[in-house]
Amino acid sequence: MGKRFISILLALIMIISLCPVQMVSAEEKGKNETSESGSAVYQSDAEELSDGDTITRGEWVKNLNSLFGFSVEEDNFPDNYFSDLSADSEYYKDVLLAVEFGVIDLEAGEAFHPDEPAAREFAAQTMNNCLRFEREEDGNYSFADVDQTLYPDADQIAVERGWFGLIDGAFHPEMPITTAEAEAIFKDAEAVWRSTDVDTSYDNTFEFAEDVIVVPEGTEILLDENQTVTVIDCPVEIAVGNTFAVYINGLPQAYQAAEVTKDGNNLVIKTDETEQDEVVTDIDAQGEAEGDLSLAQAEGDTEVTYITGGTAEQAFMDGQEFASPRAAGSVPLDAVRFKKTLNFDRGLSVTLNCTLSDLKVKYKINTGNMEAYVGIQGTATVNCSGKFDGMEAVGLPSSLTIGYIPVGGVGSIQVQVDFSMGGQITLSLVEGFSAGVQYKDGFRLVQDFHKKSFSIAAEASVQAGATVSLNVNGIPLVDGSVYASIGAEGAIAVNTYDDGQKPETCIHLSAYMYATIGGRLSIDFIIKKFSYSKELEIYTMANSPVRVMFHYEDNVQVPQCTRGWDVGYFTPWDSKYGSNGRGYGSSTGIGKNGEPYTIYEYTVDEDGNATITGYNGNVTALMIPSVLDGYPVTGIGSRAFSGRNELVTVVVPDSVVTIQSQAFKDCAGLESILLSNNLQNIQGYAFENCVSLESVNLPGSLEVLKEGAFQNCVGLVDVFIPAALQDTGYMGSRAYPGAFNGCANLKSVTFEEGMTRIPNYLFWKCTGLEEVTIPDTITEISSGVFSGCINLKTVNLSKNLEKLGSYAFSDCTSLTSVILPEGLIGLYEGAFQKCTGLIEINIPASLTDTGYMGNNAYPGAFADCSSLDKITFGEGLLEIPSGLFSGCTGLKEITLPDSITKIKWKAFGNCTNLDKINFSQNLKVIDSSAFVGCTALQEVRLPDNLEEMYQGAFQNCTSLSKVYIPASMQNTGYTASNKMYPGVFSGCSSLKEVEFGEGIKTIPQGLFYGCNGPLELEVPEGVTEIKYRALASCSAMKSIKLPETLKVIESQAMSNCSSLENIVLPDSLEKIDGSILSDCTALTSVTLPESMNQIPDSMFANDTCLESIELPKTIQTISSSAFSGSGLKSIVMPDSVTKIDKKAFLECKALTDVTLNEGLEQIGAEAFKDCENLKEIEIPDSVNNLGTKIFADCDALSKVDLGTSMTVIPNEMFYQCKSLEQIKLPYGITEIGESAFANCVNFKEITIPQATEKIAASVFSYPAGMTIYGVQGTYAETYASENGIKFENIDIPSKEVSLDPKELSVRVNETKQLTLKVEPSDFTDSVLWKSSNTDVASVDSTGHVTGNKKGTATIKVTVGDKSASCKVQVLQPVTSINLNRTSLTMDALDTFQLTARVNPGTADDQTVSWSSSDEQIASVDQNGIVTAYKKGTAEIKATANDGSGVSKSCEVEVKNNAYVASDVSELESMHNYENNCSDIWIYTLKDAADIDVYFDEQTEVEDGFDYIYIYDKDNNQIGSYTGKELSGQKITISGDTVKIRLVSDEGGVAWGFKVTDVRKKGDTPSELPYTDVDKEDWFYSYVVYVYQKGLMSGFDETTFGPDELLTRGQFASILYRVHGAPEISYSPIFQDVPDGQWFTKAVLWANSVGVAAGYESTGLFGTNDNISREQLVVMMYRYAQYRGYDTSKAADLDKYQDMSSVSGYAVEAMKWATANGIISGKGDGSILDPQGNASRAECATIIVQFVEKYGM
Predict the structure, then answer these.
(1) Who's near 373: CB < 8 A, 6+ residues apart?
(2) What is the 8-class DSSP label of residue 1677?
(3) Which residues are within 8 A (CB) of 26 and not within 5 positions of it... i.e. 6 or more apart?
(4) How many CB atoms lie under 10 A from the CB of residue 1296?
(5) Cα gap 1674→1661, rounded to integer Å
């Protein structure tokens, strides 16, 4: 089992940033004071050197630290490698500091002996490790005992520096040093150390060669990358060929001028290289230059980030990052970060982040003293993590350059990384260092490595490092480079034993950190040149501050090898570099005394897989084992590593598939984590508050990343999202944070190629994100993905995105624009809600779905986007989806493209600042609440093609004052079943003015329902219907004017208009539904149509101010509740009324006077109930049908006369009529119903006739005070006796009897009433009715005659001994009608003969009347001839004239429209016309024998598919035309009538046609139709001519536009017409002249005959370019030549002041035109203006003058 370690090499790798390190100042080096004489007197901050003869090793090291200013953070001390050094030792920290800086060179595990005397060689070696003097490689040693020394070079340097003298020719390395020697050594060392101090205020001096022109220091110099020098306000003269010098960062830079350009006082000089050494002859200078971070450049695909603010300890993650220095503006940069990612096969990669700061270069040169120093310093922060192959194995170089940073005036810094490894690694490092080369009596390397923090873990075969180089090429007389390298090397050794004993395998792992400095320098001191090249190891295995040694036996860590393998030093148990926590295969390590120590706690599932539940290690770099005690590690348990702040880097093995909740929560020091390549699930809050974590590369296997997984990881700057990730655990509540919530510095997100969906709320509240690019493989961004990313400025969406989920970018307040890709289908609620910075957006044509549910809790996609004011809609977009811009408060104006046909539910709801809408002209549907709450809208002009507009579309648009309703508007979807919904304009409290489109027929249902604005409504003539609730609840509308064309008012059309005071219902009305004026509480005056036959249900219900009304004489029925609750005081029923329905006058409390007409037959239940002020009522004799409670609760009713046709007193008829005292019942009453007179408290007398046979027990409430009058022996007497009522007998015989009428006609099965008149009216005789022939006619006991069959009969009535008769004729009525057709499909203007046959054939009257339900669609005459007019459906009805009401209908469908034009302006199609059109236009010019018809230039139909057919009055076809064949044409037709038919197919349309004029053949109009051409205008006659000849037409019927400019295409078209518009085939000659345009044929003709050519430079004709006067003349000139006209006459152009402006090609044409009067000068005639644009008036003039000269 142990043999598997043979292939594993564990190395601890540190990658150091290659920035310059901050050099230690003189104060930091020794804190020395300087005497007045300037000599340094060294005084240690540590103990002063003792007065004894010797100094101990501890004292020596302590004073080294003090002199050189060694320092390190407390938690970054190296391990204690020395067996005799304990933490309580006086020199413990001093020794570790010396180890940290590579001063002490001892094997780990050896004794240090701090209290022993410091020997000569120890002193020489440690001091020179600080000063780095170098001997010549071939130098000889001056002492004889070389073989007794370990460091002979250091010893020789000590002798040469005079630190030690030789004794008998020997060095004596082990001889203790004396205090005097120590003092001398430190004094010399301090002088050397201070010799590199640089005085930045030093007065530098430079001497130049004689021929060098020096630009004074302080002059502003600009230098670009091409070495072009710009000298601002140059004070010296510089010419081509001069050698000149300028100062950059205080150092002179020499150039040779190759090209000099003067720009004002500035010189711009292109330069050639020159030898600097030949320019400067002497130097005494020192200073420092900062690296220009703004000019940092990346190498290859390395990324660069520029940073302001922040600290190195936080890797500058606490600073502000910019993608370019320009973006940072004037704020100085503090750091620059290079990021390099190397990708390998199988998804392996390694990423390096290197952040550089405090970058400086120091120099000190004195050629006279032959001294020179150049050095670099700075701070670097490096993070590296990855899993990778060996570099060479994959063909990559082992050293890669990642970037450059220029240092003005000095040179540039190169940053390089070195790799040679295979395996996996995680590391973090902050390092300060300096490196330099000094020459002073010889060369030495100057160095200072200052490790600020370090952590590493690796499983690899590795050598890795980094190098930073300063290339010096700008300091005069100095050339070369200085560099520093740092890294790590690791080794593995394995022994396997086969002797059967334990252990079987021993593995020893070792690693150390290395560092190297070097330099190559050439210095020219004028009198002598020196060159130097050297590399020096600073850290080796012997003195490295990081040395790690582990030993494992059979996979278990042990403190020493039991097999006796002498491996020396072991890393102590508490080392942060990796003792505990490295148990390979074991859960235990070793404690302080070598005892077993539990590192990992874990559980094992039933499958034998381990989940780590606890950790007791102490390392900073942790590589979690893949196996623990034989169990595969597949999970990291909840809180397993939570709160372990010492962790800096972590590697999770590939065996792990799950990291549970809070596993690494609050690991504040964790900077890097390398995750398992097989990880599938990261649970909630797993890495919450890991504030130092900078980068996360999520593995490709990851499927689940739960809420808050990386919450508040404020150091996180970039993350990789794998394609497999689909689940974020979002449960539908935004209370759960996103995985990267609070990651304020997360700037970069990379999505794996192939990812198709970004899961819910992944980056919710990730405030660091500024730019996101979504790869094109993504088709869905789920809910809330980037919600709350308040600093997100730029989003580049996938081109293949189909769905953008709810709240995906909500609260991204920094977003200003987003381009939504074509192909996007779904954009869901709140997707961009509260993106307050968003100012523009595009809506692709593919968008159809918003998933909008309409609940106020669900905002629109752009809700609260308060700055969004620009929307671009994709070409071809058909619908605005539901809720898309709901709540978008930034919108002020929208323009909808003409492709839009539908605006869906709440699409623009609550856009409170929207004040202008430019609608699509093809809009068909506005869905419910589309613009609800758009409170800034003041005017809405709906497009003329709009057909449907649903409830609440403009609800609560409180500023809306004016609206245009098109004629096409027909449907609002408002019905009785959804009457709780608002009307289209409900709550529009300012709506006052309504304009209706010409030709509107219907006011749709619910259109203005609930509109509480002060409407002043005039319904236009032509409207035939006002639909259900169309104007209901218009609470502020006081009046309304209805048109005489109105035929139908549907139910509740104007109900609840509480301010409406008066109304006139026109006589044209044919149908009035119920409640049309109910609850109009202010209504005082109503005029009803004369033809009205009923008062519909509840028509005036609750109209409390309506006191009187005159009913038309045609009213037959007062329907139920017609006047209930109204304010009527009196009512007179016209003679036509036959029925008063139930509750008709219920609760008319002001009603005092009611006049019921003779002929009234029926009064419904509760008809007058609760009319508390009604005093008397007379029921006519014709009434024979009564409902219950008719007069109940009529408190004032005191007088009642009942009609003789009554047979029953219904239940409760006079219930609680408190004022009623007595009543006489008519002779025919047979029954008195329940409670008929109950609670009539004053009721005393009733006369009951002989016919009464039934009286309910409860009829009277107070019988004791009553008297019943009746005939003795009748039921009246019996009832009185039984109920204790006084009875009085009466006997009044009849004296005279008559019937009305005396003759009666009645149809079979029809019943009519005969009225019996008896004198006296209170007779008591019995009444008997009978028929002479009951087979023909029968009669009941009240005189109701019913016809039974055709014939005659006599009806006789006998009253006592008196009688009367009536002759009755029974007629056969029509019972049914048959038509020859019950359905028809017709073309407009076609006719059809309908015939009707009545049944039975014996009917007395067999005639019928014909009618049409819509005469505008189809009419019918009284002979049954149907004529079709307009597209639609009409019902043609034949109705029997015999009064039977029998009818039969034929449904007529008209396929198209016919327009009989009364004016030429009506001869015009829609633009564009509709598909499947076959409409017809007809126009007749009276008294014309033949006519000329002129078509507009724009006339066009779809070429080859749609056609225009022209016919004469006899329907003879004149021609058929397609495409633009009729454009601008004149068609001559025989006769006085033209018929035009446009026929289109189901797809594709064009502009259509327009007729501009129709006149008698050869005739011309006496006047122009144009209002902008006056007879006094100089061009009037010319315009008349071109108009009459059809050469030019106006912009419209009334506008010619004389001052408008003419284009080249237009003039070509005019000449084309002059020439008769010959046919020409298309060819693509000009790019801007496509086929099928109005100008195409004209341009091609003009070009083909040489009249006009295009522009040679562009290949264009310039159809839309304004034509100049000379171009127009040239075209006329060429046309004249083409026609063969004489063009020889020419005039001199000298008289024109601007003759020189005539182009060469136009001279001859101009001479011809001026000579022949075709063109003349302007003003006083001296200005030709050839380049001026020609107006339409000028064109007309030139055309006429040409024709007058040459003819047509």
Answers:
(1) 195, 196, 198, 362, 363, 364, 365, 436, 437, 438, 439, 440, 446
(2) H
(3) 32, 194, 197
(4) 12
(5) 15
Q: What is the pLDDT of residues 62-99, one digit of tens each?
A: 998 888 877 776 666 777 778 788 888 888 888 888 88
**Other Cβ atoms closer than 10 A to 21:** 29
Q: How far apart are alpha carbons 356 and 22 in whole angstroms?
A: 11
Q: SS3 of 285, please?
A: strand
Q: Are 580 and 619 in contact (CB under 8 A)?
A: yes
Rounded Cα–Cα distance for residues 1424 and 1446 (Å): 17
Mean pLDDT of the chain: 84
| Contacts made by residues 590-593, CB under 8 angstroms, sequence distance 24+ | 590/557, 590/558, 590/559
pTM over 0.70: no
- Determine the average pLDDT of the residues in 221-239: 87
pLDDT (tens digit per residue) in 1093-1130: 999 999 999 999 999 999 999 999 999 999 999 999 99
Taking a C-beta distance cutoff of 8 angstroms, is the pair 1565, 1557 a contact? yes
Q: Roughly what angle, to the nearest 10 degrees, separates helices 57-68 and 179-194?
A: 20
Q: Rounded distance, CA 803 to CA 797, Å?
A: 11
d(CA 1147, CA 980): 27
The CB-based long-range contact list for 1249-1253 (8 Å cut-off, 24+ gap) reads 1249/1225, 1249/1276, 1249/1324, 1250/1274, 1250/1324, 1250/1326, 1251/1207, 1251/1227, 1251/1326, 1251/1327, 1251/1341, 1252/1225, 1252/1276
Report the C-alpha gap between 119 and 281 in whole angstroms: 47
Going by their DSSP bridges, the two strands 610-615 and 1383-1386 should be labelled as: unpaired
Beta-strand pair 1002-1003/1025-1026: parallel
Q: How far is CA 771 from the centre of its chain?
A: 17
Cis omega (within 30 of 0) on the bond before 503? yes
Residue 477, token pair as written in the block: 């007389």
Mean pLDDT of 1331-1358: 94
> What Cα–Cα distance (Å) separates residue 799 from each residue in 823, 1332, 1456?
8, 97, 45
Residue range 1448-1468: mean pLDDT, rounded: 90
Distance CA(832)–CA(842), nearest Å, equals 13
Per-residue pLDDT, 938:
95
Peptide bond preceding 1320: is omega within 30 degrees of 0, i.e. cis?
yes
CA 1544 to chain centre: 38
Q: Which amino acid is at 548?
A: V
Both tokens assigned to 928: 């419910």
CA distance 545 to 76: 10
DSSP state of 1465: G
Token output for 971 = 């449907």
Q: Is the pLDDT assigned to residue 1552 strictly greater than 90? A: yes
Q: What percent of the chain has pLDDT over 90?
A: 41
Nearest to 742 by CA among 782, 697, 688, 669: 688
**1491-1516 residue pLDDT tens:** 999 888 889 999 999 999 999 999 99
**1363 to each of 1205, 1294, 1329, 1330, 1367, how far by Cα in Å?**
17, 10, 10, 11, 14
Bridge partners, residue 191, by sequence: none
Strand partners, 727: 704
- Burial label for 1596, CB within 10 Å (0-12, 13-18, 19+), is middle
Tens digit of each residue's pLDDT (9 = 90 or more) over 1155-1203: 999 999 999 999 999 999 999 999 998 998 999 999 999 999 999 999 9
Closest to 1525 in 3D by CA, of 1557, 1547, 1551, 1503: 1503
Q: What share of the chain is helix, strand, coil (3-state, %, to 5)?
A: 10, 30, 55
**Greatest CA separation for the chain:** 187
